Amino acid sequence: MEALIPVINKLQDVFNTVGADVIQLPQIAVVGTQSSGKSSVLESLVGKDLLPRGTGIVTRRPLILQLVHVDPEDKRKTGEENDIQRKNSQSST
């Protein structure tokens, strides 16, 4: 799965640039009743906890997840740099 994400991202970028979908990229639809585990299925496929948790109705909208491979060493893209700046600004106030 990890090796497939960058390839799909490049294909999506090319298709967006030329404005055409020459081939259909893999897509998964998760359908079920309320609280049946649809969000958990998506998180399992992605391998990350990224959706809200709680009781009752939590995920209220259709979701489209586009997976983008980011080098773990690139803190600018992983958001860690922003987290560090935010924590520093909060501790100085």
Automatic annotation (TrEMBL):
User: Has keyword Hydrolase?
Assistant: yes
Its predominant location is: cytoplasm
Output the Gene Ontology terms for molecular function. GTP binding; GTPase activity; microtubule binding
> What are the record keywords, sorted?
Cytoplasm, GTP-binding, Hydrolase, Nucleotide-binding
Record-listed E.C. numbers: 3.6.5.5
Q: Which InterPro entries match?
A: Dynamin, Dynamin_GTPase_CS, Dynamin_N, G_DYNAMIN_dom, P-loop_NTPase
Q: Which Pfam families match?
A: Dynamin_N
Where do the coiled-coil regions begin and end? none
- Determine the domain of life of the protein's source: Eukaryota
Presence of the UniProt keyword Hydrolase in the record: yes
Instruction: Show the PROSITE patterns listed in the entry.
Output: G_DYNAMIN_1 (PS00410), G_DYNAMIN_2 (PS51718)
Q: Which GO terms describe its cellular component?
A: membrane; microtubule; mitochondrion
Query: What protein name applies here?
Result: dynamin GTPase
The protein's organism comes out as Sinocyclocheilus anshuiensis
Q: What is the lineage of its organism?
A: Eukaryota, Metazoa, Chordata, Craniata, Vertebrata
The gene for this chain is: dnm1l
